[in-house]
From TrEMBL:
Keywords: DNA-binding, Transcription, Transcription regulation. CDD domains: WHTH_GntR. GO terms for molecular function: DNA binding; DNA-binding transcription factor activity. One of its GO terms (biological process) is negative regulation of DNA-templated transcription. It comes from Streptomyces malaysiensis. InterPro entries: Bact_HTH_transcr_reg, Chorismate_lyase_/UTRA_dom_sf, Tscrpt_reg_HTH_GntR, UTRA, WH-like_DNA-bd_sf, WH_DNA-bd_sf. Pfam families: GntR (PF00392), UTRA (PF07702). Residues 11-78 form the HTH gntR-type domain. This is GntR family transcriptional regulator.
Amino acid sequence: MGTTRLESVPEPKYWHLKTVLSDALDSEFAVGEILPNERELAARFGVARATLRQALEQLELEGRLQRRRGVGTTVAPPRVGVAVGDYAHGGTDASGEDAWQTVESVEAVPPAEVARLLELTPDTPVHRVRRTRMTHGQPLAAELLYVPGDSVPGLAAIDTPSGLARARAVLRELRRLELEGREQTVELGSARADDAKELDRLPGAPVLVVTTRYLAQGRPAAVAVATYRADTCRLTFGDAAGEELLAG
């Protein structure tokens, strides 16, 4: 990796450095290769470590680099296209290369924003189903699905208070609804400690948060909050209403 002095560059130093580093990643490093440590890189490019750190964070945000637990900063593979829609949310616990895996269900009070989307009063408990999405054996996304009791009235007859069996029962009962549509938002965020653990990332790593509100009979039927690794995927969206959401 060559040496470039940046004192006379008019744009922010970290932004120009990001471009220089990006070129080096293309020409000098292989996917998965570990970068030199910050001290070596800062000395090589004649910048402060704070400036270098800004450039590295930007490259991580753009999916060029990955921070791996116990390893360091490595060159990321190209982002894979991830469908967010019927296929993405319709995956079962199959052993395919891209599938949602149901983990558990508990009764819990949803976050205030989720309660608002569900048009519930604060402190109203709902069924919370946790799922993870895997691709090629690696974690890609973690999802929390919030389901009001009114959406799954038949669940009262199922004597399974929590866990995987309860989660599958919630999904099975919710499938009985005729979903009329969905509303989705996507935001850039930072991985919280629990999401980072599930996604095998460091806390604070960039993530894409997809919030989906599903509608049935003119009212909210469920809200899904899916956290995707921003360093490995780009999201694509379909036009269907989401009827396949709840297989599993």
